[in-house]
């Protein structure tokens, strides 16, 4: 009987440890926590945002104002819809309530991407996903300088 209790205790300890480790990894989820960008009356509250490759961008409307977000940008006061290679499709996402948020992404390709609001003149957002580009491309440059 004592042996059985010991087994049960051991099993419950294993269960607790397993549950704890699962909760831990689920909570942290690597570094891919979504980055947020807020929208005000007629602008993105920041002109650009850098996000880690593979993560999504959370757009948040701070005011009860209509915003319609798509791939592209305002150029010389004219909307230029355009989707860069590798950019996630953002097809006229509509916001009209304070506190409303929607995720855009994931951005699985490194690069620079543009989003705009077709309602508000010059409401542009640049999304930069650096990925692994910087370090890998720096190595040939450094070694050629060392050799010279
Ligand atoms: Cu807008």
Provide an overview of this structure:
This protein has 148 residues and is of the alpha+beta class. The protein has one domain (2-133): Sandwich (Immunoglobulin-like). Helix content is 28%, strand content 31%. The chain has 2 helices and 9 strands; from the N terminus they run αβββββββββα. Strands 2, 4, 5, 6, 8 and 9 form a 6-stranded mixed sheet that branches. It is globular. Residues 13-32 and 136-140 have low confidence and may be disordered. Copper (II) ion is lined by residues 42, 67, 117, 119-120, 123. Copper (II) ion binds at residues 42, 67, 117, 119-120, 123.
Q: Give average pLDDT, whole number.
A: 80
- Assembly state: single chain
Separation, N- and C-terminal Cα atoms: 78 Å
Portion in strands: 25-35%
Low-confidence stretches: 13-32, 136-140
Question: What integer value in Å does the Rg equal?
Answer: 23 Å
Secondary structure layout:
Elements: H1 2-28, E1 35-39, E2 48-50, E3 57-61, E4 67-75, E5 78-81, E6 93-95, E7 101-104, E8 111-117, E9 124-129, H2 133-147
Parallel strand pairs: 1-3, 2-9
Antiparallel strand pairs: 3-7, 4-5, 4-6, 4-8, 8-9
The protein binds copper (II) ion.
Summarize the structure.
With 148 residues, the protein is of the alpha+beta class.
Keywords:
about 150 residues, alpha+beta, Immunoglobulin-like, six-stranded mixed sheet, three-stranded mixed sheet, 2 helices, about 30% helix, about 30% strand, globular, binds copper (II) ion
